[in-house]
Amino acid sequence: MSKIFEDIKQEAKVQAKLEDAVEMLKEKFSIEQIVRITKLSKSEIIEIGRRNGLL
Predict the structure, then answer these.
(1) Which of 40, 44, 45, 55 is most buried, by CB atoms within 10 Å?
(2) Local structure of residue 53 (DSSP, 8 states)
(3) Are the beta carbons of 2 and 29 closer than 8 angstroms?
(4) Average pLDDT of 23-50?
(5) For the whole model, what pTM was predicted?
(6) Which residue ranges make up each domain of the chain?
(7) Contact 26/49 with Cβ under 8 angstroms?
């Protein structure tokens, strides 16, 4: 059971980072700043920005 909870917890962390990246893009943070803060890759941030019409 704890493996399931750990997987859910990890997925929630990733989702929060993605949501944070979208908000940072809206506030005109640079991609490099978002990479440094969220630890997401540059390609992930670019993809998220494109999907949300921010890049």
Answers:
(1) 45
(2) T
(3) no
(4) 97
(5) 0.85
(6) 2-51
(7) no
